[in-house]
Amino acid sequence: MDRRSFLRNSGLFAITTAAGSTFVMACAPSTGNDSANQAAAGPNAKDATFITPFQHIINYADIYVAIQEGYFAEEGLNVDVVGGSGTASSVSQVSANQGLVGKAAAINTCPLIADTGATIITVAQGDQKSQYSVASTPDNPLTHPEQWQGKTIGVISKGGSTELLLDAMSVAVGLDPNKVKKVVTGADVGSLEFLNRGEVDGFITYIGSESAFKQREIELNYLNTDEFAKMPGDSYFVKTADVEKEAEAITGFLRASRKGYQFVEKPENLEKVLSAVGAFNKVEVQDEELAKLKVDAQPVICRSAAGEYLTIDMPAWESAVELMRKSGIMKDTSRPIEDFVTTQFVEQI
Questions:
Q1: 154 and 78, same structural domain?
Q2: Which residue, 197, 227, 257, sits at the end of a domain?
Q3: pLDDT at 41
Q4: Which end of the chain has less neighbouring CB within 10 Å, N or C?
Q5: Which alpha helices (DSSP H) does the chain contain, by range?
């Protein structure tokens, strides 16, 4: 996939100045109600804005909890949360000084840094495991990329992260991703109908829809994309210029986020977690049974093998960058890993 297609399908566009510098921009999303009551911060608290990758959903419960339980206030921060319209909007808004912290996966941030000059850097890794899997029927499971060569696989969006991950899975084992037909099946439970009708041989699903299938007792075989194309998932990033200028605020933000994750993982805190999320999106928690399944899935995705949150898996970042270059997702071949991610903040929290 070329750079122009990646930007267009991500909702971004590039502007090149007369001097030849390129800036990545996007239209600001319409997010509706982006505020909620929070534990009062002190009169000298620093205002900070977090841009979500996509609206207000349970995946960002650590932030909503940190607001509700006063963890940000303890760090001297008054945090506002703006719901984004896609991972690209989070990148573009932080780049345009509309937020201190954003969240996006390596497969989104690394090509933008290397190939378009986006001046951002990842400071903490939220997802330690991919949210995405290739779903198929239990009686005809897809367990290896070679099984979908010449077949049709559903992706959540054309040209988005899931198509890029699917291509990377093929490239990782020496197969041609162009020999796989991709069609858009979406991100909700309706994607299953494409499989049931025989229109696809499998489809990419994410942790939220997996929870919905589980609630409905629908059995599917899931092949996590990490099995063949390990890419660090949604991670916290900031502007490169803020690494020094806003170091204290960034460290405090991440410390509060980690406390939020630790709060979320405790079953006895479920009602408070749902309350925190519901303050931003009541619809997300209306089905309490489904919401509980989504909350339960967060530690599975976000807790590292060592049992901690926000740790950066540097070997995974290094292998991901190499695979993105090999698969053509990223054109650059020389930028060092330090341009994409830093461990200096998680080492302080």
A1: no
A2: 227
A3: 67
A4: N
A5: 3-10, 61-68, 71-74, 87-95, 106-116, 161-172, 191-196, 207-215, 242-245, 247-264, 270-278, 288-302, 314-327
Answer for the pair 171, 323: CB distance below 8 angstroms, yes or no.
Answer: yes
Its domain, for residue 67, covers 3-129+232-339
Coil vs helix vs strand at 191: helix
Q: Which of 207, 227, 247 finishes a domain?
A: 227
CA–CA dist 25, 160 (Å, integer): 17
- For residues 245 and 327, membership in a common domain is answered with yes
Instruction: Based on the fold, state whether residues 25 and 159 are members of the same structural domain.
Output: no
pLDDT (0 to 100) of residue 14: 36
Closest by CA to 124, choosing from 146, 158, 101, is: 101
What are the residues whose beta carbons fall under 8 Å from the beta carbon of 245, sequence distance 6 or more? none
Q: 134-184, pLDDT tens digit by residue?
A: 999 999 999 999 999 999 999 998 888 899 999 999 999 999 999 999 999
pTM here is: 0.85
Q: Which residues of 98-137 form beta strands (DSSP E)?
A: 101-104, 120-125, 132-136
Please report how the helices 61-68 and 247-264 are oriented relative to each other, as an axis angle in degrees rounded to 10. 100
